[in-house]
Give the backbone structure.
Amino acid sequence: MVNVQLLPWSEEDLPLLEKLMGDPEMTTYLGGPETPEQILKRHQRYLHLPETDHMFKIVWGPESEGAGSVGYWQINWRDQLVYETGWLILPAYQGKGIARKATEVAIASARQEHRHQFMHAFPSVENAPSNAICRKLGFSLIEVCQFEYPHGSGNFMQCNDWRLDLIEK
Ligand SMILES: CC(C)(COP(=O)(O)OP(=O)(O)OC[C@H]1O[C@@H](n2cnc3c(N)ncnc32)[C@H](O)[C@@H]1OP(=O)(O)O)[C@@H](O)C(=O)NCCC(=O)NCCS
């Protein structure tokens, strides 16, 4: 069984974010690598999120290594307030089921909040592992849509709109 722990994003997590968002391969389906300035801005945002939004460092292994990030945050989608979720795992830790397990833990946390009925994920149609994670965690495929990533960037990708009902058990 994969053992992961989610820790709230902290000051010391900037180097992890640099590896996650500054790398061309890691960001193939996320609009490409961000500049150091954009990453620092993102880090500051993660440290001061509103109470509707959550970002975690994923910790894994006997040495409690920082393997990636997972989060969920409020968005307005099709005139409804919902959660969006997203995940990134460093190459050295991929293929071990860490993203799947970490997302499972994030879903359980969102369920406990009783804030929104639906959680969406918008992986690129070409992102096979992310689409597999959505399918295996019980999300339903709603449709293919044009999704802007990062929000406000003007960069639109063809994505799958996956939706999970947080109330239905
Ligand atoms: C997407 C990502 C987070 C997956 O992380 P991971 O920890 O390797 O994922 P997991 O090990 O939990 O594997 C997820 C599932 O995808 C499956 N999978 C992996 N590669 C696959 C492929 N090419 N085709 C189909 N399924 C694939 C795995 O078999 C696994 O299913 P299983 O649990 O039944 O074995 C990681 O590849 C990543 O960070 N990519 C770059 C950033 C990114 O694109 N983030 C997602 C934005 S939506």
Notes: The longest strand covers residues 65-77. The radius of gyration is 15 Å. The CA atoms of residues 24 and 117 lie 34 Å apart.
